[in-house]
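[Discussion] Sanity-checking designs against the backbone

I'm trying to build intuition for which residues belong where. Below is a structure token string of 447 positions. I'd appreciate it if someone posts a full sequence so I can compare it with mine line by line.
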């Protein structure tokens, strides 16, 4: 049995869905379990509608619902009932004027709930035997709304009960990614980009022989092809390199995806649904030898740096603990940390709790905030061994102002912070520097 996950762009409209259905059909003898994302852009639209409704802009929220409805009804008329429920929900939100993470998850879940029904329906229409598996019955999670953690044992048991017999009977199982349910039946989501995670959980729980992540690029590339159009495909990348890249912005693969799969040694491939004949990128357990110093460059925009300066307290016992506790209390992850004798700087990409955090940091010292920054992250297993990489990296971006530098604790990344407006330029220069020549065993130029 194999798991095949199709991202938003691979199911964005009827033509994309048909392409993806054919990809599944061609692998029918491998017993596919399909995991689908919402139609491209649907999750963003749903979340936006929820926020507008709670902000008492019901007209705008309903207008979004209507345009989503047109896209969905064209593909499956029976989704009309989902839109009736969605409208009621938006109406209720605008009456209360409040939006909890739990309700936001419920709204977002409509995307995958409907796309999975649409995909099942289309496979059946094309003459294949497909069965819909409701993720809200099998993907059991805790109740951390917005970023729920799957409960593997319960999920495994339910997949064995509801999905395995169908697959054994030769049916194609189709489930929505991203969404789950608590043990008491309340809808959750696994966080943005979470369909990859759903696919990996299914793969690990059901001991799949392979997990295929079908998307709109040829695989993991040496940089985001939207920034470096002539980026190369990376034929093989280790789990830890892929996780690092994903975390730092290469959203082609959700960071958590690799965990359940790596534990079981299940091969993961990233493949292009527009060019299904390609070989994609294989995510392997260990990195093989590669003559290039790095494998890929990721970047993440919208980074904020918070600096706390205090000549008095910095070296005092307990200072750093007090500092990190503030971020911890507000559930705000810190990506990078740099210290000097009189200051500590930290980078954040989630600023939802920033005002409260700044208030609590005040007693610790003078606090400054810089925003509109970007984090550039070079990743590769060779960073562990090869001297002189920093010299070449900084030489190639010498005319760009660098605000912070970190050689990640994993030893396989070298990251730095620049102004958002310099991010693409920095990525392009680094790419030219490190991929002027390339190892043909590992990289493949665009065709
Ligand atoms: P999906 O909808 O299939 O989940 P995503 O939009 O989440 O797709 O991820 C695919 C996108 O990730 C690509 O279109 C590409 O622009 C972006 N991306 C960023 N960095 C990389 C990278 N290093 N390699 C490939 N794609 C990347
Ligand atoms: N549809 C969800 C999102 O946009 C999950 C996913 O696509 O992986 O975040
Ligand atoms: Mg994605």
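Best answer:
Here's mine. Compare freely.
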């Amino acid at each position: 049995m194999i798991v095949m996950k199709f991202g938003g762009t691979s199911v964005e409209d009827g033509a994309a869905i048909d392409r993806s259905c054919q990809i599944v059909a061609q692998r029918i003898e491998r017993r596919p379990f399909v995991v689908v994302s919402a139609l491209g852009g649907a999750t963003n639209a749903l979340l936006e509608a929820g926020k507008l409704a709670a902000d008492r802009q019901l007209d705008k929220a309903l207008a979004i619902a209507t345009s989503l409805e047109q896209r969905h009804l064209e593909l499956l008329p029976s989704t009309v009932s989902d839109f009736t429920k969605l409208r009621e929900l938006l109406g209720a939100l605008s009456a209360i004027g409040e939006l909890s993470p739990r309700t936001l998850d419920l709204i977002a879940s409509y995307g995958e709930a409907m796309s999975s029904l649409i995909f099942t329906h289309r496979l059946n229409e094309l003459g294949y035997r497909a069965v819909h598996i409701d993720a809200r019955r099998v993907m059991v999670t805790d109740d951390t709304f917005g970023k729920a953690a799957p409960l593997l044992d319960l999920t495994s048991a339910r997949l064995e009960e509801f999905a395995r017999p169908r697959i054994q009977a030769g049916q194609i199982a189709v489930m929505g990614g991203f969404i789950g349910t608590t043990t008491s039946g309340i809808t959750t989501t696994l966080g943005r980009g979470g369909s990859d995670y759903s696919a990996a959980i299914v793969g690990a729980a059901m001991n799949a022989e392979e997990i295929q992540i079908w998307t709109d690029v040829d695989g993991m590339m040496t940089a985001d092809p939207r920034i470096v159009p002539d980026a190369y495909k990376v034929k093989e990348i280790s789990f830890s390199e892929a996780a690092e890249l994903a975390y730092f912005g290469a959203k082609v693969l959700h960071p958590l995806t690799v965990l359940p799969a790596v534990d079981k040694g299940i091969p993961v491939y990233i493949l292009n649904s527009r060019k299904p004949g390609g070989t994609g990128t294989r995510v392997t357990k260990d990195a093989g030898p590669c003559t290039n110093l790095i494998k890929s460059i990721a970047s993440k925009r919208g980074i904020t740096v918070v600096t706390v300066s205090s000549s008095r307290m910095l070296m005092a016992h307990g200072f750093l603990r007090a500092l990190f506790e503030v971020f911890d209390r507000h559930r705000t992850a810190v990506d990078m940390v740099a210290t000097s004798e009189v200051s500590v700087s930290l980078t954040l990409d989630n600023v939802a709790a920033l005002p409260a955090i700044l208030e609590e940091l005040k007693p610790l010292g003078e606090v400054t905030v810089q925003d509109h920054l970007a984090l550039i992250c070079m990743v590769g297993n060779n960073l562990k061994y090869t001297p002189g990489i920093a010299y070449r990296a900084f030489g190639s971006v010498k005319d760009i102002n660098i605000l912070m530098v970190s050689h990640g604790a994993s030893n396989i990344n070298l990251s730095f912070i620049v102004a958002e407006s310099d991010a693409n330029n920095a990525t392009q220069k680094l790419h030219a520097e490190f991929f002027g020549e390339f190892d043909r065993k590992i990289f493949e130029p665009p065709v």
